[in-house]
Specification:
Pfam families: Cu-oxidase_2, Cu-oxidase_3, CusF_Ec
Domain Plastocyanin-like: 88-181, 244-355
Protein name: Multicopper oxidase domain-containing protein
Helix content: under 10%
Radius of gyration: 26 Å
Keywords: Copper, Metal-binding, Oxidoreductase
Number of helices: 7
Strand content: 35-45%
Organism: Litchfieldella qijiaojingensis
Shape: globular
Distance between the termini: 15 Å
Length: 656
């Protein structure tokens, strides 16, 4: 079994190092670097850290926002490590305490300039994050640290202020919460994405039993399609910032915490119990004005844009109008009474602008979620409803291939639905109506599995030694690139131990990786710095590709070739099916579960070599169906089957 040190296996965020006093440790998602969050001294002597250092980078991610719909986003993300990225949309919810001295370092790993604007927080002018006005934009490969003292408690947010008509709507936006100061106030400082806040602060516990951060977005899928469709950063810039007209945008996907219905039900379900008070922090990160409606409940509006309302100004409503960039805090009172709540059940919650509860014009979709009492939450984590939600989890429904109503209503079947229609002219003659745009093909799913399969095994007993110096950074890029290695072609002999001296010239993370070599070689760290590591070449002439595995760095120029001996073509290890002689698509693996995301249907696993398929590594895999994860927990040893065609685990057995 591949057993790594415990800190690597659990991907801990380690506090201390930068600050003078270590305050403890916090378990985070896999792929988070120790530098992502560091806590320092207790300045006011009340038992909790008052120095907070957060390191963010910018990652391009592709996410399935509803069944079959894959969308490309840019997000701020905790500084990462390894093959498993903690990045997701929206950007992480940041939590600090009133009085904290906060430093947020933006390491621009992206191919465009960016900044961070701390919207709503009190901060010095030079920390306002407006490009050209208060600072130069942070260029690719550079870093900038925003420093401020958290003063005004409340629900705020942060976003990129470079070309905000595009960058904010691409996902560079997240909630910023400043908590009131209380003694012994320990809590998680970064929550990837948003949603249920499981560790309430001392101030929240004084009034509430539960708390949720809810980030609403509206996107035009045509805009998000551009960086996925083109590769040269110059062309992406022209198409996104000069050809795309944001004044003519047509939002057609509406998201809550980065998902649309039905995925919102497993990702952002508002779970409650009777006789509770639940705090809902709501951010409208989109460009529309929304009208949030809660069925069966009349919450109390307690805060607007981070500031509390006086008791006389608080209102109880079932529809709340929230403008772009506005935040409201709602107090949801549950149970059954004559004013605030109608009783237990599964209660709809949505924007009452009717087009926003569709997925590209097909209903139900969009930002629908539900206030769901615990006794109505099923074993799969979904609400127990009157009929079935199954058809909404079928991608064919949102492709318009499944009738909205049961065909039996019209005394037909799904197969015969489109036959036998009347050939008469429409009443009043032919006419036009707005039809769904079906001219754009679905974006194919991006998979980390592709490009990381085994093509060669390292020699068991090296016969020679070689040292190679490699540099990496923006200064080595050519026209149409952003990052690059120098040199781009490395040479070694078969069965040779190679020591790589990697000099990272940038102030961001780079990783020099040989993805096809078994065991896989990776040298990854944040620069500017120099580090050394070794690998052994295969015992044959072959050409291996190497690249930086930080998202988009390969595509933006950071790749090259290792020529072993005379070189030669690479061929993945292909196992043959004994009966049919076709490439084997099923691969068996063994590993230890690092984390389980049942709502997203994903499993992070530290696995041994998967013979003929993948080197030993920590990797995130899609699991289909997601119900296979129902009884899987971290630290389980498991056997699993990967279907290379589906790029997913299709069977998993825990060995406890």
């Amino acid at each position: 079994m591949v057993m790594r040190p415990l800190l690597t296996l659990l991907a801990l965020i380690v506090f201390g190092g930068v600050w003078a006093e270590v305050r403890g440790a916090e378990t985070a998602l896999p792929g988070v670097a120790p530098e992502a969050v560091q806590l320092g001294r207790d300045l006011d002597g009340d038992g909790d850290a008052d120095e907070v250092d957060i390191s963010l980078e910018i990652i391009e991610v592709q996410e399935e926002v509803y069944p079959g719909e894959f969308v490309t986003f840019w997000v701020f993300a905790p500084e990462g490590r390894g093959m498993v990225s903690p990045a997701r949309v929206p950007s992480p919810t940041i939590r600090v305490e009133q009085g904290d001295r906060v430093r947020i370092t933006l390491r621009n790993t992206h191919y465009f300039p960016h900044t961070i604007h701390l919207h709503g927080a009190i901060h010095p002018n030079e920390m306002d994050g407006v490009p050209d006005f208060t600072q130069p934009p942070v260029k690719p490969g550079e870093a900038f640290t925003y420093e401020f003292t958290a003063k005004n408690p409340g629900t705020h947010f942060y976003h990129c202020h470079v070309q905000p008509d595009v960058h904010v709507l691409m996902g560079l936006v997240g909630m910023l919460i400043i908590e009131p100061n209380r003694p012994d106030n320990e809590f998680v400082r970064l929550i990837p994405g948003a949603g249920r806040i499981t560790d309430l602060t001392q101030a929240a516990l004084e009034h509430y039993q539960r708390e949720y951060s809810l980030v609403y977005m509206d996107i035009d899928a045509r805009l998000n399609r551009i960086p996925a469709a083109y590769h040269d950063p110059r062309e992406i810039e022209q198409r996104m910032h000069r050809e795309y007209d944001s004044t003519q945008r047509r939002p057609n996907i509406f998201l809550l915490n980065g998902r649309a219905f039905p995925f919102t039900l497993r990702d952002s379900l508002i779970e409650v119990d009777a006789d509770e008070r639940v705090k809902l922090r709501v951010l409208n990160a989109g460009a529309r004005t929304m009208h949030l409606h809660t069925h069966g409940h009349h919450p109390v509006l307690t805060h607007v844009d981070g500031y509390p309302l006086s008791p006389q100004a608080r209102v109880t409503r079932d529809v709340f109008t929230i403008g772009a960039a506005q935040r409201v805090d709602l107090e949801l009172r549950t149970g059954r009474d004559d004013t605030y709540a109608s009783g237990p059940g599964v209660w709809f919650m949505h924007d009452h602008v009717e087009s926003t509860v569709t997925n590209k014009g097909i209903s139900p979709g969009g930002d629908i979620t539900a206030i769901t009492y615990e006794e109505f939450v099923g074993p799969d984590g979904l609400p127990e409803v009157a009929t079935s939600l199954d058809r909404f989890f079928d991608p064919a429904y949102y492709r318009g291939e499944i009738p909205v109503f049961d065909p039996e209503i019209f005394h037909t079947t799904r197969d015969e639905y489109a036959y036998g229609w009347s050939e008469r002219e429409p009443v009043g003659g032919e006419f036009d109506y707005m039809a769904r745009d079906t001219t754009v093909a679905p974006l194919p799913q991006r998979s980390a599995i592709e490009g990381h399969q085994i093509v060669a095994d390292a020699c068991e007993e090296p016969r020679a030694f070689r040292r190679i110096h490699v540099q990496g950074g923006i200064q080595f890029a050519r026209a149409g690139e952003v990052f690059a290695f120098e040199p781009r072609v490395l040479r070694a002999e078969p069965c040779e131990e190679v020591e790589i001296v990697f000099e990272n010239k940038d102030a961001v993370r780079h990783a020099l990786m040989l993805p096809g070599l078994n065991p896989m070689f990776t040298l990854e760290f944040t620069g500017p710095d120099t580090q050394v590591a070794r690998f052994v070449t295969p015992d044959r002439d072959i050409t291996l590709e190497f690249h930086c595995h930080v998202e988009t760095h390969d595509e933006m120029g950071m790749h090259g070739r290792l020529i072993v001996g005379e070189g030669g073509e690479t061929h993945a290890h292909v196992e043959q099916d004994d009966e049919e002689g076709e490439e084997k698509r099923l691969h068996e693996g063994v590993g230890v579960v690092v984390s389980v995301d049942k709502r997203a249907g994903r499993l992070v696993i530290d696995h041994e070599e998967i013979p003929g398929f993948m080197a030993p590594m920590v990797m995130s895999y899609q699991v289909q169906p997601a119900s296979l994860l129902q009884d899987v927990v971290p630290s389980d040893q498991v056997r699993f089957t990967i279907d290379a065609t589906q790029r997913a685990i299709i069977d998993i057995v825990a060995e406890r």
